C-alpha cells in the first residue's frame, strides 16, 4: 500500500497561467506545442517537482524478480491483452505477468482465465486509498510499474505485440549499464516547449519517447519513476506540453540527470498498401538493441474491432540508417468515415511482413476468433455493458431496478 505521506504528495495539484495548447507536427519531425506559460507558472512547477523529489521515500525492499506489466481494463484493452499474452506464451515467454485494471473493469471470470496463463491480475484500488479518478488513462501506467511486485519491469501496452520472447532484454548490456531502455517516437520536442525550462534542462534535440514498451530497473530509477507519476498526476499542466504519458518518463529522467539508453533504430511502420492512397501505416515497429524488429504496437485498428479474417499487416517500412526522418499523415475516406494513417518519407526500406514473420497475424486472429466464440467473452461483454449502463452495478447492486413493492404500485 502507498504510505499516507506518499499519497499526500501525489494529491498536490498545480495551477497557473498556461494558454491552451495543441501539438502540431512539422514535415521534418518536430513536435510543436501551441502553449506558453509565464515565468511565475514555470517557476511554480519547477519548485513543486523539486520539492516533491526531496520527499520521496527510499526504495522499498518488498520488490523482487523480473516480470511484465500490462494495463488492460475494459473490452478493447482486455481483448488486445488476451492476444498479446497468448502470443507471448506461445512464443516461449515464461516471465511472470501482472495485468492491472481499475474497479470492475475485469470480471471474475476474465481474471480466472488470465490466471491460467500465469498472470496475476492487480486492481489499482487495492494499492491506494487516493481518488482513483487520478489514475485513469495514462497515469495508470507509471503507477502500475511502481506498485508491481517486480524489481525489474518490462512494461507493455496491451495492444503492443512481441514478435518473439522479449526476456533477453533484461540481460542486454545496454540495460545492464543504464538500468533503463526507452524506445523512440517519430519526432523531437520543439526547443520552445516550456518543459525544458520547467525541468532546468537545456534543449538537446533528442528524439521523443514512445512508451508502448519500457524496460526499467525500479531500484536504480526509483526517484525517476516517482517523478514521472508526479508529472502524470498533474496532467492538466504537463499534458498540455507533452503527449499523454509517453514523454513524462524521458523528462523525469532528464530532470534528475539520469542517463538512459534510447534504442538507436528509428521507429518504423507496419500496415497495408491501399490502391487509393498507397501505404497506410497503422502500427509502430520497434527494435531490440541489435536492430531486430521486436514489437508491433497496434495504435490504430486494435484487435477488438477486427474481423476474424481481416489482414492488416502486409508491409513494413523502416528508415535506412542515417537518413533524414520524414513522415506524413494520410486520410482514407470510407463513406462518412475518415480514417487516419501514417507514412514514412525519405530513404526508407520496404519489406513484406509475411516474408519476415510468416503467419504471425493469422495466429493472432485465430486467438481472437476463439475468444469471441467463448462464453467467457460473451459474459465479459455483458459485464462491461452493465457496468457502463447501470451505475449501481459497479457497487455490487445487481437486483432488479424495481422492487416488488414498486412493481405493485405501478400495476395499480
From TrEMBL:
<keyword id="KW-1133">Transmembrane helix</keyword>
<keyword id="KW-0333">Golgi apparatus</keyword>
<dbReference type="InterPro" id="IPR022751">
    <property type="entry name" value="Alpha_mannosyltransferase"/>
</dbReference>
<dbReference type="GO" id="GO:0046354">
    <property type="term" value="P:mannan biosynthetic process"/>
</dbReference>
<dbReference type="GO" id="GO:0012505">
    <property type="term" value="C:endomembrane system"/>
</dbReference>
<keyword id="KW-0808">Transferase</keyword>
<keyword id="KW-0735">Signal-anchor</keyword>
<protein>
    <submittedName>
        <fullName>Alpha 1,2-mannosyltransferase</fullName>
    </submittedName>
</protein>
<keyword id="KW-0812">Transmembrane</keyword>
<dbReference type="Pfam" id="PF11051">
    <property type="entry name" value="Mannosyl_trans3"/>
</dbReference>
<dbReference type="GO" id="GO:0000026">
    <property type="term" value="F:alpha-1,2-mannosyltransferase activity"/>
</dbReference>
<dbReference type="InterPro" id="IPR029044">
    <property type="entry name" value="Nucleotide-diphossugar_trans"/>
</dbReference>
<keyword id="KW-0472">Membrane</keyword>
<keyword id="KW-0328">Glycosyltransferase</keyword>
<dbReference type="GO" id="GO:0016020">
    <property type="term" value="C:membrane"/>
</dbReference>
Amino acid at each position: 500500500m502507498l504510505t499516507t505521506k506518499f499519497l499526500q504528495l501525489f494529491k498536490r495539484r498545480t495551477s497557473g497561467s498556461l494558454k491552451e495548447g495543441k501539438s502540431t507536427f512539422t514535415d521534418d519531425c518536430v513536435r510543436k506545442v501551441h502553449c506558453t506559460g509565464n515565468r511565475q507558472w514555470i517557476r511554480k512547477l519547477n519548485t513543486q517537482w523539486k520539492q516533491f523529489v526531496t520527499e520521496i521515500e527510499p526504495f522499498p525492499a518488498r520488490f523482487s524478480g523480473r516480470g511484465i506489466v500490462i494495463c488492460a481494463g475494459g473490452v478493447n484493452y482486455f481483448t488486445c491483452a488476451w492476444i498479446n499474452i497468448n502470443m507471448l506464451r506461445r512464443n516461449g515467454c515464461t516471465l511472470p505477468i501482472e495485468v492491472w485494471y481499475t474497479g470492475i473493469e475485469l470480471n471474475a471470470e476474465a481474471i480466472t482465465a488470465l490466471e491460467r496463463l500465469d498472470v496475476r491480475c492487480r486492481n489499482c484500488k487495492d494499492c491506494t486509498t487516493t481518488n482513483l479518478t487520478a489514475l485513469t488513462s495514462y497515469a495508470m501506467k507509471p503507477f502500475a510499474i511502481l506498485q508491481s511486485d517486480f524489481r525489474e519491469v518490462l512494461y507493455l501496452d496491451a495492444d503492443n505485440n512481441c514478435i518473439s520472447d522479449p526476456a533477453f532484454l533484461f540481460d542486454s548490456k545496454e540495460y545492464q549499464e543504464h538500468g533503463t531502455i526507452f524506445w523512440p517516437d517519430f519526432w523531437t520536442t520543439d526547443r520552445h516547449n516550456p518543459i525544458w525550462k520547467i525541468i532546468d534542462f537545456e534543449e538537446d534535440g533528442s528524439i521523443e519517447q514512445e512508451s508502448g514498451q519500457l524496460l526499467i530497473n525500479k531500484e536504480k530509477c526509483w526517484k525517476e519513476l516517482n517523478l514521472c507519476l508526479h508529472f502524470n498526476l498533474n496532467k492538466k499542466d504537463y499534458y498540455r506540453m507533452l503527449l499523454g504519458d509517453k514523454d513524462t518518463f524521458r523528462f523525469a529522467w532528464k530532470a534528475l540527470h539520469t542517463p538512459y539508453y534510447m534504442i538507436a533504430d528509428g521507429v518504423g511502420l507496419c500496415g497495408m498498401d491501399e490502391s487509393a492512397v498507397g501505404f497506410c501505416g497503422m502500427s509502430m515497429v520497434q527494435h531490440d538493441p541489435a536492430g531486430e524488429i521486436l514489437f508491433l504496437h497496434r495504435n490504430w485498428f486494435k484487435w477488438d474491432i477486427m474481423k476474424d479474417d481481416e489482414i492488416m499487416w502486409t508491409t513494413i517500412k523502416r528508415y535506412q540508417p542515417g537518413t533524414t526522418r520524414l513522415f506524413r499523415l494520410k486520410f482514407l475516406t470510407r463513406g462518412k468515415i475518415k480514417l487516419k494513417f501514417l507514412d514514412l518519407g525519405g530513404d526508407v526500406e520496404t519489406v513484406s511482413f509475411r516474408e519476415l514473420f510468416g503467419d504471425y497475424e493469422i495466429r493472432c486472429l485465430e486467438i481472437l476468433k476463439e475468444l469471441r466464440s467463448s462464453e467467457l467473452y460473451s459474459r465479459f461483454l455483458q459485464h462491461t455493458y452493465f457496468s457502463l449502463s447501470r451505475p449501481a452495478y459497479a457497487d455490487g447492486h445487481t437486483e432488479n431496478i424495481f422492487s416488488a413493492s414498486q412493481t405493485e404500485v405501478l400495476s395499480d
